[in-house]
Amino acid sequence: EAQLVESGGGLVQAGGSLRLSCAASGFTFDDHVIGWFRQAPGAYREGVSCISSDGTTWYAQSVQDRFTISSDNAKNTVYLQINSLKFEDTAVYYCAAVPYPRCRGGLGYDYWGQGTQVFVSS
Q1: Cα 94 from Cα 110, distance rounded (Å)
Q2: What is the dihedral of CA 23, 119, 64, 7, to 10 degrees?
Q3: pLDDT in tens, 54-110
Q4: What's the CA gap between 88 and 6, in Å, rounded?
Q5: Which of 70, 85, 91, 100 is 20 to 30 A (C-alpha) from 11?
Q6: Rounded distance, CA 96 to CA 87, Å?
Q7: Pair 61, 48: CB distance under 8 Å
């Protein structure tokens, strides 16, 4: 059974940094694109980044200068480094997976984690 477990969220002051983790199991990690999404209160869920096993990455324009996605294929884990946190980064962050050869924006995803909450205090 495919499973994605996010961790690393919490309360942080504006300007600080966080590293979110997404641990994957139950599917062939190298065959899947892993994406990160976020949903702020009262807002739609938005895609922020993805990565594929060939190293291709994608970022939403709104975050590309502050977010960095990386992958440890030996651990089946994807990370999202968030720097210079802003109040508007407050959201539940989800990771998701889809069997697809290369990361790009606009993909639909098959498997989802439960999310990790990020609160940014201003």
Answers
A1: 13
A2: -10
A3: 999 999 999 999 999 999 999 999 999 999 999 999 999 999 999 999 999 999 999
A4: 20
A5: 70
A6: 24
A7: no
